[in-house]
Batch of 3 targets.
Target 1
Amino acid sequence: MKPLRVAILGVTGAVGQEFLALIGERKFPFSELKLLASGRSAGKKVKFQGKDYSIEEARADSFKDVDLVLSSAGGSISKKLAPEAVKAGALVVDNTSAFRMDPEVPLVIPEINPEDIAKHKGIIANPNCSTIIMLVPLFPIHRLAKIKRIVAATYQAASGAGAQAMAELDRQSREILEGKKPTKEVFPHQIAFNLFSHNSAIADGGYCEEEIKMMKETKKIFHAPDIQVVATTVRVPVFRAHSEALFVELEKKVTLDEIYQALHKGDGVRVVDDRDNNYFPMPIEATGRDEVLVGRIREDHSVANGICLFVSGDQLRKGAALNAIQIAEIWAKSR
């Protein structure tokens, strides 16, 4: 794979920092590396692989001589700058919601629909973190017996709201343990020792943006417009791994043995299902892992052909930066 001239847009954020870590871990080939952020961070130094890099302010003219942009700087910035990067000749793998439902933009999870990468017109969208962590373990089941309906309840980590939200969880925990009143700056409610409905905007129908993303993105990624998805998304006091309880209705009856076999063979999945020891996926064990953990696998007797699962995955890795890097790796090999 030929080394690429890479730009990271939003490098100072939690996902941007994870991009850097994964480029190093996966030995992603680059000949040049440009670090972009807001004007507030311009001029700051970042040490990477023994070299000091200066952060530059992200501007419309920042993408000259760049092959690949890994973007995680917020939807409004992506809408403004991603087209400029494409005009300059770069591929943009965008981690925001800006382009996910654009019919001209592929929405890709490499374990599921890598063939869609070739359909890009300069931008490839990274799905929502909750969608990724849900669909990676469900896809092997979907191939085995087509999924008709998914009911999801999420337990989402602070990392999904960024580095400052993780810091708020840490700070509030310390404040409470010291007998102080917790201070709120990022989340609308106390996150330490608490949980609350996901802090995205509520639409007219009563669903929040996070829930709507999971519903719509699943249809696009699976190429299954008829699949039914409903979700309830919740913030919990966990640092960086999302968990989800999934209730799935299949088109036909399959055995639990067949489900286990499909999951064991599934890409990006690790089965953690020890009933004897009551040992199942946990966010502390999903943190830092590339795979999505899946367990609590059992029949749902309340519906025909129903299966229940519990999954946990690192929101910053597979839920964000790793998925984007995997897309870039596939694209780079095909150039």
Note: The CA atoms of residues 45 and 51 lie 10 Å apart.
Target 2
Amino acid sequence: MKQYTVAVLGATGAVGQEMMKILAERNFPVGKLIPLASARSAGKTLKFKGEDVTIREARDEAFEGVDIVLGAAENDIAQKFAPAIVKAGAVFVDNSSAFRLDPNVPLIVPEINPEDVKNHHGIISNPNCSTIITVTAVNALNAISPIRTMTASTYQAVSGAGAGGPIELMSEVKALAHGESYEPKVFSHQIAYNLIPQIGGEQFEGYTSEEMKMQNEGRKIMHLPELKVSCTCVRVPVVRSHSISVSLHFDKPVSVAEAREAIANAPGCKLVDDLANKQYPMPLDTSNQDIVFVGRIRPDLTDDNGLCLWCCGDQVRKGAATNAIQIAELLLEKD
């Protein structure tokens, strides 16, 4: 099998390290792995397949000879290095939001729109974590009847804010247990025993940037340009795995039985929907794996053409690292 030179841009972060782990798990044909990070991390080592690999400084010259770059850095870093990556002839699979809405950049969830990968010009975007989990859960229903509107509330784990999120949650819990104070650094308010109904800055009519991603990205991924979404994003004191409550409104009625059958057979989904036996998707069950669990499927009592459901998925894996590597696997198929 052909081997590829793969670089991970932002290798020291939570998503970057997860990417390296999943490359090994999925036996991606890596001939050479190049972890890239800031100058202060250069020279240090990370483990890949049991071996130490040396971190290099991210700079334009670092991409020469690379086939695929997995981006796990912030928007400004992605924008800074994208021209050098493309010039070097590599394909940039980027987890930031820098290029997601660029009409010349495919936005891919492999279970939904794998064919769009052929339209890339050197850059492919990985969607937002909550968007990936939600559209994976609902896409099979869109095939029964087009989704016209969607109302979603996300319950996002602290690890979605990076490696510092879980540390801050645990530190606050420990401090509060001892009657001590703890000054939040990662989040704008105390997250322990609390909910924070803001993720991202205000972008449109009181909606945050995180909330608008669901509408804008969902339209592009599912090829539904008229899709309307109203979303509320909430940070919750859960370590890992995002949860989303979704109300869908279709062109025509979709029965609960139809929905359950479609989701049970949908790629990337697992139906967990037995209220009588207290079986439904939960963060503890969906962490550290790549399937989106879907349940609590029921009629929307406000609309005869509506359904409600609840889904959970690991936002570090399927919501970021795994989805990016699945995109890279599509590139191998094309190659």
Note: Residues 4-127+320-334 form a domain with the Rossmann fold fold (CATH 3.40.50.720).
Target 3
Amino acid sequence: MMFDKAGAVSEIEAPPYSSLPGTFWHVPRVTRGNTGAEPRLVRTLEDAPFYARSQLIGEIGGAPADIMHESLSLDRFRAPIVRAMLPFRMPRIVGRR
């Protein structure tokens, strides 16, 4: 759905799926993006064994957009080794792409 400045709602077709580069922990990441205007990764903000948060840029409905993207793998979260790591904080790598 898209909202204009007056608050009117119109439906837009969802773009096709597009893969994003993997993370250090190999968390799978996909998003949606138009061919030729696919979202591009700006930086990864959070990279954990089962979760990733990233900043993207792209287009939505033909307009430029800043995009926040999150990926969560509950299969990984359920793994015993990952659950054993939960009490420990992962080191942050600032500016990692």
Note: The chain has a mean pLDDT of 85.
